[in-house]
Amino acid sequence: MLTFSLSLAFALVAAAFALSFYRLLAGPSAPDRILALDTLYINAIALLVLLGIGLASPIYFEAALLIALMGFVGTVALCKFLLRGDIIE
Amino acid sequence: MSGTVEILLSLLVLAGAGFTFIGSLGLVRLRDFYTRLHGPTKATTLGVGCLLIASSLFFSLTTENISLHEILVTLFLFITAPISAHLLAKAALHRRLPSVAPLPVDAAADGEPGAGIDRLQDLR
Amino acid sequence: MKRWLPHPLLTPVLAIVWLLLNNSLALGQILLGLLLGWAIPCFTLAFWPERVRFYSPRAALRFAAVFLYDVVIANIAVARLILAGPRVLRPCFVNVPLDLTDDLAISLLANTICLTPGTVSARLSADRRTLLVHALDCADPEALVAEIKQRFEVPLKEMLEC
Questions:
Q1: DSSP string, B35-48
Q2: A36, A62 in Cβ contact below 8 A?
Q3: Across the beta sheet with C130-135, what order do the strands follow?
Q4: Interface partners of A (3+ CB pairs, < 8 Å)?
Q5: From first to last of its 162 residues, what are the pLDDT tens digits of chain C?
Q6: CB-CB under 8 Å, C89 with B100
Q7: Domain range enclosing B93
Q8: What is the CATH number assigned to the segment(s) A2-84?
């Protein structure tokens, strides 16, 4: 039961990856691409958590936490760049 | 693991993955940037939240220790997702991206007192 | 007191975060967490001089419960709107006049708006009196403003500004 729903969940998250990736490539504007990148970060967290459950190993948690941290910092830096044309003031 | 727990876990995992998928679907399907912003900030946050609760339950039940550190990621996402959404909306307004809804009047004027429509009504 | 414990709320929060990060409840970790929770606010005092105060913890708890309930409801609503497609959406920008003055209260309100009822807070005006909000599907802007004010702003005011 759990194995089956895990495979289905993997498929759904992979489809989410593909959709976000399409938006990343298609644009059309810079904020759209940043939003797609941010969504990709969150999808990666979801994928790692699923992988952790599937392989019954708690190691992936740390990677998920790091991606959450770095993704947030990256998004904020890119937005700041769009707003001010400069990151470090 | 008993059957009930397994069903509960499966439901949580599927709901989480489903919400993540719908969030990304919104990213592709909706028409302008401002509406696209809603999908990833909301649906995806709850999706990952569901997955993390499932993970917490799974590790608490399969190992002897109670596993609560997933709460940390959930908490972190709940704090950061609105901030990135807010910044993205601000950047989009700053660049005056096209929108289905009419844009507020002086949207690009960062740092000007009074935002948009209300200000004009005040002046009248 | 003020000098040795600059942020009395931050110390237990940091200790709990440390325990969650280590996923353990050992006595040594609790002590280390408390030590970090005491030391970090002392060293970072220059970055946030004013203290966070909750005037009404009961209002805070009630707000947290309403918030969690609303997050789930709003997420299901947004998911349904996305599945229904772009044609049924009625997006609009709404200006929400703010009664809050405290920085923390305003940022909490903006965050809550982003996570809850199909809205994203887009910009705070420079004089901090209006918050521009983008709604995904909004038939009646007046009602939306009234709902935001009544549901989130009133408890936040009670909680942080007395």
A1: HHTHIIIIIHHHHH
A2: no
A3: C92-97, C130-135, C119-124
A4: B
A5: 566 666 777 788 888 888 888 877 788 888 888 888 888 877 877 777 666 677 777 777 888 888 888 888 888 888 888 888 777 777 788 888 887 777 777 888 888 888 876 777 777 777 777 788 888 777 777 887 888 788 777 777 777 765
A6: yes
A7: 3-123
A8: 1.10.287
Under 8 Å between Cβ of C70 and C120: no
Tracing tokens 């990833």 back to the chain, one arrives at: B40
Token pair for residue B4? 């009930």
Q: How many other CB atoms are found less than 10 A from the CB of residue A56?
A: 10
Give me C43's structure tokens: 């060293």
Domain regions of chain A by residue span? 2-84
Single out the residue of C88, C111, C112, C101 nearest to residue C162, CA to CA. C101
Distance of alpha carbon A87 from alpha carbon C109, whole angstroms: 26
Q: In this structure, what token pair is assigned to residue B106?
A: 């002086």
Measured distance CA(B23)–CA(B38) in Å, rounded? 8
Residue bearing tokens 């040795």 = C4
Q: Do A65 and B73 touch (CB under 8 A)?
A: yes
* B120 reaches C (C-beta below 8 A): no
Q: What is the ipTM of this complex?
A: 0.84
Domain count, chain B: 1
3 state SS of A89: coil
